[in-house]
Specification:
Elements: E1 16-20, H1 27-35, E2 46-47, E3 50-51, E4 62-65, H2 77-87, H3 92-105, H4 121-133, E5 139-143, H5 151-168, E6 171-176, H6 179-185, E7 188-193, E8 196-197
Parallel strand pairs: 1-6, 1-7, 4-5, 5-6
Antiparallel strand pairs: 2-3, 7-8
Length: about 200
């Protein structure tokens, strides 16, 4: 797909692409434009051959993991993961099966009944990843998902995200200001500075 504001990005199907750059370089805004959370002044967003520029965020087939989890505190881990499927009115049996699959995928199979406040930071991010994957997105967007974690957890989760991305083959765009993170995880790295893709 292509992102606007004189920034053209093509991401290969099934790959993990990192957008690397300092705060304020436009990485997160670009991600939000791809997701449909921001509207570009010019240009188009393409997913495959489909122009989704005017398509509502929930109809783009995109999973989004934010920097600070964005968990529903009053819902259990399992219900947080199920949320996207519930609002799409999927059958209960399908939701239950999918949630169980995802809990196992992110190694939280014993935490489904807990609440986000009962999880560590790394576990909350794994829950957020499972929730983003629940709808089987065409594209997964990760906005600095590891920046709030300590170094050891960040390294473990980096490996987990890469494993899951490769296992599922989901096209992924990962925003980070951490060069080591970008180089260790991504198939391709785009360097951004002052709104431009260098």
């Amino acid at each position: 797909f292509t992102a606007p504001d004189d920034v053209g990005v093509e991401v290969a199907d099934g790959s993990l692409t990192a957008l690397l750059g300092p705060s304020g370089s436009g990485k997160s805004t670009l991600l939000r434009i791809i997701a449909g959370l921001e509207t570009p002044d010019t240009g188009r967003v393409l997913i495959g051959d489909q122009d989704v520029t005017g398509v509502a965020p929930q109809q783009r087939g995109i999973g989004f993991v934010f920097q600070h989890y964005a968990a529903f505190k009053h819902l259990s881990v399992a219900r947080n993961i199920a949320f996207g499927l519930e609002i799409r009115k999927r059958p209960k049996a399908e939701i239950k099966r999918r949630v169980q699959e995802l809990l196992e995928l992110v190694h939280l199979e014993h935490f489904g009944d807990r609440y986000p406040s009962q999880l560590s930071g790394g576990q909350r991010q794994r829950m957020a990843l499972a929730r983003a994957l629940a709808i089987s997105p065409r594209v997964l967007l990760l906005d600095e998902p590891l920046s709030a974690l300590d170094a050891k957890v960040r390294e473990q989760l980096r490996d987990e995200i890469r494993r899951i991305q490769q296992e599922l083959g989901v096209t992924t765009v990962f925003v980070t200001h951490d060069q080591e993170e970008a180089l260790s995880m991504a198939d391709r790295v785009g360097v951004m500075r002052a709104g431009q893709l260098e």
